Amino acid sequence: MPSLTVDYEGQGLRANTVCPSGVRTEMADRRMTRFAAEAELADHSIESAYDEATRTLPMGRPGEPGEVAEAMCRLLSPAASFVNGAVLTVDGGAAVLDPGTLAFDFRLTPRGDAGSADISTPASDAHCVPPSRTGTEVTVQDGD
């Protein structure tokens, strides 16, 4: 990606990378179904599996595809016109975790006693309409 940034700088093109992680998709739902059974979670539900898999994440929940799309739209929008060669991690804070210290995080509750995670999507000032596969224009609409 750095070479793309340099190679096309004079042509008005920008090259950025989006790195999503922990996003709730059909494929992730299938994996969570298997995880619920493998981990012998009480109700074997997908929701319990997601709660268990994300309880140590700063956001405490999986991402939604729309949240990744919003990040991509932001990079495509005029608001990011000076962003070039960036790597945007969209993972709910997972990249900042130090797995070796999780055992010492006394805020964690033992498996089975975890409360329900807040999976609401935060409100946004503006909503980006992702570009179509054939078009290149990005529309940013004011939020209600």
Description:
With 144 residues, this protein is of the alpha+beta class. The protein has one domain: NAD(P)-binding Rossmann-like Domain (Rossmann fold). Helices cover 28% and strands 11% of the residues. It contains four helices and four strands. The strands form two sheets. Strands 1-2 form a two-stranded parallel sheet. Strands 3-4 form a two-stranded antiparallel sheet. Helix 2 crosses helix 3. The radius of gyration is 19 Å and the shape is elongated.
Layout: helices, strands, pairs:
Blueprint: H1 2-7, E1 17-20, H2 26-38, H3 46-54, H4 65-76, E2 87-90, E3 126-129, E4 139-142
Parallel strand pairs: 1-2
Antiparallel strand pairs: 3-4
Helix pairs in contact: 2-3
Keywords for this structure?
single chain, two-stranded antiparallel sheet, elongated, 144 residues, Rossmann fold, alpha+beta
Largest beta-sheet details: 2 strands, parallel
> What is the β-strand count?
4
How much helix, percentage-wise, in residues?
25-40%
Distance between the termini: 37 Å
Assign an overall shape. Answer: elongated
Number of helices: 4
Q: Averaging pLDDT over every residue, what do you get?
A: 79
What's the level 1 CATH class? Alpha Beta
Beta-strand proportion: 5-15%
**Order of strands, widest sheet:** 1-2
CATH architecture: 3-Layer(aba) Sandwich
Rg from Cα? 19 Å
**CATH homologous superfamily?**
NAD(P)-binding Rossmann-like Domain
Poorly predicted ranges: 113-126, 132-138
Structural class: alpha+beta
CATH topology: Rossmann fold
Number of domains: 1
